[in-house]
UniProtKB/TrEMBL annotation:
Organism this protein belongs to: Acacia crassicarpa (northern wattle)
TPR repeats: 71-104
GO biological process: protein folding
Any Pfam family: Wheel
Protein name as catalogued: Cns1/TTC4 wheel domain-containing protein
InterPro entries: Csn1/TTC4_wheel (IPR044059), TPR-like_helical_dom_sf (IPR011990), TPR_rpt (IPR019734)
Length: 361
């Protein structure tokens, strides 16, 4: 009997040939029946999708149908997997269907749709184009192609924005390192938001600077403090009208009475990777990793400020911002923060004696 013939052996008698033909006919009939049953299960709704997949799989496994018929089975199984959200399986089945029958339009559509769902947009475009070459008037493929092209354009735009943001952030990191500046964890974010320095075309840093009136913890903000500017220039502009501040009922905080200080000797310098990550916050690249600089973390991140340095350091108003920021004991808390005090205020003695500290954040 042909049922017991060894694998790959040839039938020797007419009887064995007849048996093999009969078996093949039975398997073909079973495969066609399984295909039709699978189609019925699809029509019965989502609860029966797994039954449909099982039927299509068993029909394929009969291995008696032609390539074009098997292509239909793979395309059908891809369709069900798409509806179940099994996009990777759907793509595999659709591409197998195309391989078996390169004119299977439904297979191209399902391959494109699965690729779109997997965000494989170049592959989705390719399947769409190939399908439209076979059937230029296929409205479903045209509509899907438009969706894919739109999403691809959005992806390309986002990738360009990410690339630009990363490049600019790396330039900033390099500029900061070349100046010997140290950046620590950002403070007072409720006042500063995600403000960051900007490097202009002449390689000059422009910093947003926060001024805190320590006595009342009110604040002023300088949007663009060029690193080459002297402090006196900005203070002269801020206090040019000689009008008292809204909360300064004793007129202590006039131009001639104020002094600026920064806090030194505290904090830890961010590693290069963490600094890059910080500079990318709020940009298109905010979800990016630290762009390959992790290996340098150990060296750059080990710079602690000398805790023996004075806590409050008075700013020489004739100094430039760069001159002050390069102090090795000054770890910039995200952006430069300076404390404003008045020599006429009773608070001045307390501040100078080191009996005041910024509120914890």
């Amino acid at each position: 009997m042909a049922l017991w013939m060894e694998k790959d052996s040839e039938p020797l008698t007419e009887s064995e040939k007849a048996d093999l033909d009969a078996i093949a006919a039975l398997k073909e009939s079973a495969a066609i029946e399984l295909k039709e049953k699978g189609n019925q299960y699809v029509k019965m709704g989502k609860k029966h999708y797994s039954d449909a997949i099982d039927c299509y799989t068993r029909a394929i496994n009969q291995k008696v149908l032609s390539d074009s018929e098997n292509s239909v089975l793979f395309a059908n199984r891809a369709h069900v997997n798409l509806m179940l959200g099994n996009y990777r399986r759907a793509l595999t089945d659709a591409e197998e269907a195309i391989k078996l029958c390169p004119s299977n339009i439904k297979a191209f559509y399902r391959a494109a749709k699965a690729s779109l769902s997997l965000n494989l947009l170049a592959k989705a475009q390719s399947h769409c184009r190939n399908g439209l070459q076979l059937d230029p008037n296929n409205e479903e493929l045209k509509k899907l192609g438009q969706q894919i092209d739109l999403k691809k354009a959005e992806q390309d735009k986002h990738e360009a924005e990410v690339s630009k943001a990363v490049a600019e952030a790396k330039e900033l990191v390099l500029a900061i390192e070349n100046r010997g500046l140290k950046i620590g964890k950002a403070m007072f974010r409720e006042l500063t938001g995600l403000k960051k320095p900007v490097l202009d075309k002449n390689n000059i840093l422009h910093w947003p600077v926060l001024l805190l009136y320590a006595e009342v913890m009110s604040s002023d903000f300088i949007e663009d403090f060029c690193e080459t500017d002297m402090f006196s220039v900005h203070l002269d502009m801020m206090f040019a009208d000689d009008q008292p501040l809204p909360w300064d009922d004793k007129s202590n905080y006039k131009r001639e009475f104020i002094e600026l200080y920064y806090e030194a000797g505290s904090g830890v310098c961010l590693s290069r990777a963490k600094l890059l990550h910080s500079l990318l916050e709020g940009t298109a690249a905010s979800q990016q990793e630290s762009a390959g600089d992790e290996e340098k973390d150990a060296v750059h991140g080990s710079n602690h400020v000398n805790t023996g340095a004075p806590k409050w350091v008075k700013v020489n108003e004739r100094s430039t911002l760069h001159d002050v920021l390069k102090d090795p004991n000054f770890i910039i808390p995200g952006i430069p923060v300076f404390y404003v005090v008045s020599k006429r205020s009773s608070f001045y003695g307390k501040f100078k004696a080191g009996k005041w500290t910024p509120p914890s954040i």
